[in-house]
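Here is the promised in-class demo. Please do not try to memorize the tokens; focus on the logic of going from shape to residues.
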């Protein structure tokens, strides 16, 4: 299952840049005992990397009652992060200091969706 974006994914993200801010949707499925690891990763994100790259968490919450989904389609958590542009996201994930903590996210998850969004209208 997918957890981390590959280099080719990041290149495509930058190549398809419509300009302006980008809001990244994160759907997360935790490994057994993965919540603590993800919380440590999230602390680094909030305290160091998001401020450094001008980003902010717009929403973070635990999955709850599923109203419309097939078996296995529910998520443990949703995080929505706004970056000033796609380049800022790219710079963050390429940051050597970020690279030293990203293993916490990888270890925490069994599956994830990381999707850039484009505002309507």
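The designed amino acids, position by position:
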């Amino acid at each position: 299952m997918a957890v981390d974006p590959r280099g080719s994914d990041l290149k495509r993200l930058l190549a398809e840049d419509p300009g302006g801010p980008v809001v990244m949707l994160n759907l997360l499925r935790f490994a057994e005992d993965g919540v603590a690891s993800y919380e440590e990763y999230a602390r680094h994100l909030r305290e160091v990397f998001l401020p450094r790259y001008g980003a902010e968490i717009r929403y973070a919450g635990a999955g709850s009652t599923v109203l419309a989904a097939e078996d296995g389609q529910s998520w443990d958590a949703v995080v929505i992060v706004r970056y000033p542009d796609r380049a800022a996201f790219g710079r963050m994930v390429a940051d050597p200091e970020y690279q030293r903590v990203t293993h916490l996210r990888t270890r925490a998850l069994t599956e994830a969706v990381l999707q850039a969004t484009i505002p309507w209208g």
